[in-house]
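Good morning,

Attaching, inline, the backbone tokens for the sequence recovery test we're adding to the shared suite. The designed sequence is right after.
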């Protein structure tokens, strides 16, 4: 099997991954997955597509992650892994799509407008 590389995005986080056959090692920015994401909930989010298809021990994944916060990065990585698994085995697409792992969440932070404290918040209005 050749190396499959895909990209996943969420908020302002970008995950570029390289998937090859291996023993299930996931390296994120040259660190172990458990070191990079100490929170078990974020580890769970990242491993969801692999656990769904029960192929966690079959692939080694090398990840370059940048931008965003921990949650956005974890979800970007989940999308990238899902896309890579579809590239490897197109039969798995229906399972991943039904679980919602192939959907790119388009929500981004709204920009701050001039003359306002935040994107939608207004300064207090005074009639007199």
């Amino acid at each position: 099997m050749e190396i499959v590389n895909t990209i996943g995005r969420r908020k302002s986080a970008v995950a570029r991954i390289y998937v090859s056959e291996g023993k299930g090692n996931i390296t994120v920015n040259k660190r172990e997955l458990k070191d990079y994401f100490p929170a078990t909930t974020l580890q769970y989010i990242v491993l969801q597509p692999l656990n769904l298809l029960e192929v966690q021990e079959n692939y080694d994944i090398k990840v370059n992650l940048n931008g965003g916060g921990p949650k956005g990065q974890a979800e970007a990585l989940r999308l990238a892994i899902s896309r890579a698994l579809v590239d490897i085995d197109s039969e798995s697409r229906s399972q991943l799509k039904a679980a919602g792992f192939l959907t790119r969440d388009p929500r981004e932070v709204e920009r701050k407008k001039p003359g306002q404290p935040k994107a939608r918040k207004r300064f207090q209005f005074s009639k007199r």
